[in-house]
Amino acid sequence: MTSRLPVRKTYKLFVGGSFVRSESGRYDRIEGEPSAVNIPRGSRKDVRDAVAAARKASGGWAARTAYNRGQILYRFAEALESRRADIGAPADEVGEAIDVLVHYAGWTDKFQPVLGGINPVAAPFLSFSVPEPTGVVGVVAPDEPALLGLVAELAPALAVGNTVVAVLSNGRPLPGLDLGEVLGIADVPGGVVNLLSGRRAELVPALAGHHALNAIVDASADAELGAEIDKLAAESVTRVRHAAPTRSYTDATADPLSRLEALTELKTAWHPVGA
Amino acid sequence: MIRRLPHVDRVGIEERAATLGKRSIKTSAKEQGIRLAVSMVDLTTLEGSDTPGKVRHLCAKAVCPAPTMPEIPSVAAVCVYPSLVGVAREALDGTGVRAASVSTAFPSGQASLDVKLRDTEDAVAAGAEEIDMVISREAFLAGDDARVMEEIVRVKDVCGDAHLKVILETAELGSYDHVRHASMLAMEAGADFIKTSTGKAASGATPGVTLVMLEAIRDYVERTGRVVGMKAAGGVSTSKAALHRLVLVKETLGDEWLTAERFRIGASSLLNDLLMQYQKTQTGRYARPEDFSKE
Amino acid sequence: MATQEQRTSITWDYAPAPESPEHVRLRDSYGLFIDGSFVDPGDGTRVASVNPATEEPVAEVAFAGPGDVRRAVQAARAAQAGWAALSGLDRGKYLFRVARLIQERARELAVVESMDGGKPIRESRDVDVPLAAAHFFHYAGWADKVSYAMGGRTVEPLGVAAQIVPWNFPLLMAAWKLAPALAAGNTAVLKPAETTPLTALLLAEILQEADLPPGVVSIIPGDGATGSALVREPDIDKVAFTGSTGVGKDIQAALAGRGIPLTLELGGKSANVVFEDAAIDQAVEGIVNGIFFNQGHVCCAGSRLLIQESVAETVVSKLWSRMERLRVGDPLDTNTDVGAINSREQLHRIEALVASGEEEGAVRRTVSCSLPDRGFWFAPTLFTDVAPAHRIAAEEIFGPVVSVLTFRTQAEAIEKANSTPYGLAAGIWTDKGSKAFEVAAALQAGVVWQNTYNHFDPSAAFGGYKESGFGREGGMSGLRPYLRVTR
Fold it and tell me: Looking at domain C271-458, which of 1.20.210.10, 2.40.10.10, 3.90.850.10, 3.40.309.10 is its CATH number?
């Protein structure tokens, strides 16, 4: 039997629902199966474009019903399940990532009564507090586990209605880039998730320092980078959460409320009661 | 004096309009509905690049939209700028299709009242049988209802025998409360028809807006006995949308209102979609857009 | 040359737009769904389920006898420990599968619901079936988050739940019952209503397709005797009932002394209150939706219309015009607004109460629409000059009949609205927010709709005050009745 000459994959960034090359044209070469591959070396301008795409998508994503967001996240899980073989990560890890998506799909219409509620103020007003999405969330994905660590930060951000710009692991970006392809089939609207490969040292400062970013989740476990993020975020009062890389499904779902709450803004409203 | 707006609940009105969009119009009802919709079209061209040649082609299409399907009626009117309404009138003479003109510094209305009246007089003198004017949104948004009404009264005055449609430009008014209020102002000032939009703004005769205006007409007619018509313009570009508007008319005002004397659809590309859908009812096949001339 | 179309108006009738039942896969005969399979009734009977619009049989079903009921409860007990031992994630995954399968088979379920029960296809297609899928989806997501609904307390499922559902929203009520019970780790025996077993049986097929472990759910149609046997079974841990207040009281009495948790969702005589500062046209739409949706076969129907006197004449006039445009007829026609009455018995009950209204001196108006010769039909009806003491103002009619009363002040409206042993729902129509909230706070009703009516969501708790029942379905509150706190 003659062996077939395979068609090799070109890895691209995932921005605004499209697969694009880095505007800088640069690349890095990294290990892969069966051979080394070229991946886009994202630039500050790619970060700018990704944030713009995330911002553009954020109104529509937040305006969908919670039920609809839950259905889309569940479909993301369905899509990842059907593409298990294509994701360059160990099978167990992919299984746990799918389960994390299923877990957070179930939070979209439940975090509101848990985090919000009625405030029994001492005056004739109906006062209620509603957790709303903060807007555009940056994610610094960990090196290990490359897929699960990314999904564990994406899922809660999306569940509460945010859009995301994620900077993938330096050394292991392939599972994240593969995830972009899964998003393409999963009914997730363009711009809701944006995935950038490249060098963390170049991309993260651009992201953290972007004034249109509402929050950033740093799962890099790099203390120096973390401090730099803190300083840049301070320029525009961007919310920062430092998190250890998520190692397992149990980890990802042990304290979901902290992950969800960190990416919401609580709005309190008052209305008089009395004709 | 601070105006008192009527109350329209947006969620409620949009639910009702959407539910009526679920009416299933099939077979004979669909054929009849499409022919009815054609008879209600004000075939429109309002471009800076319009010329007498273009208008003449449009008039020919208006009179006989589909030579291969002679049961398709003429449309109700052709609607053009004042500079071309003379051409239209001549081309349409004796056909039963009316020559309509926009006026009052269409589409913005941002000109002096004198200029707007002169614009109208010119159109009428050139042969316009129907005038589509715009209300002053500038006055409306400033809360000056009296001036909004005054302008309508003055324009109606110079229309002579021509019937007057008053365009509210609903996309610019703010809310359904405002749409309903503007509808009442226009009717009380003497409008023969109230019309949603110029077709030049962000949105036009959405189902919700159309329903609000039909309800306003219903209540006005019940209170005064004077019949005022409605023209849905802007955004009605498919047969499905046109039939939806007809359902709104039927279920708000009744079958007596299903006539070009009381309901019009301002459109340009809609006509061909009506013809294509009609052809499908006759042949069972989806047609090609190119089968029907643009003008 | 085109024809010269006359400018005069035409009559434009909608042509029949029947939803075809051709794509529906119904068996000729269904057994009882016990322990994961369809089985013949042991000591039960076989009965034809009839289409109330045509009086024709749709399919044959089995009614469970006491022995069958016992078998179902045993199967539920045998499966319960294993079901509860699964991770919440896994229970959730089964329920997510069910939700997705309902969505896939949505059209078929909607058609069968309309054929079996008489409701318009537009409602079963756009309300019943999508909400049923949404309930399973919502509670699938709770299965692994139960402690968050319980304030961090440690909880466990109750065990075997006996659940009885009514004929007005057969599939939806089955979803309201099963989804939270299963998510919480209970197993269930569900008894669908006598006249509407079919969609529950299709749901049983869906549970099989989802590979739900056998015994976790059994579905056993039957009549009042079946339900009575079920609640008297010794080995159940929970009873949930939706139906008439009369039967609810019987069940509550039957459980006396047994210490079995109970939730009841019973009847109502809900007040729909229209203030003079309401958006009147939308209020009229809300009134229509409140009492003619599902032919008025709704526990929370807005059957008492309380109108502020200053706008009463206007509202009644607009309401009447609107009622006359309602399209009553074939439930499978997509243009039908009001379908058939569910059964001959229910039709007689409605007719008797309406007759009492006329005898007691209220003024009756019934829309003049033609009704089919076969089937059970009642034309939408409006009563004015109604006094609060009239039977039509006090008793639940459960049909397309609205009784109008007037009020002068807000205080009077509240007092009248609350003067009933029922307390399920209420509607408030006003554009003044502070009034909407103040009146809502004062009404003794478990569900208050402000400027809308008959809206439901899996995340929003639903249930009654007083004799409309106790316990809630939907949201966190719908989960709690299926759990016990261990410490």
Answer: 3.40.309.10
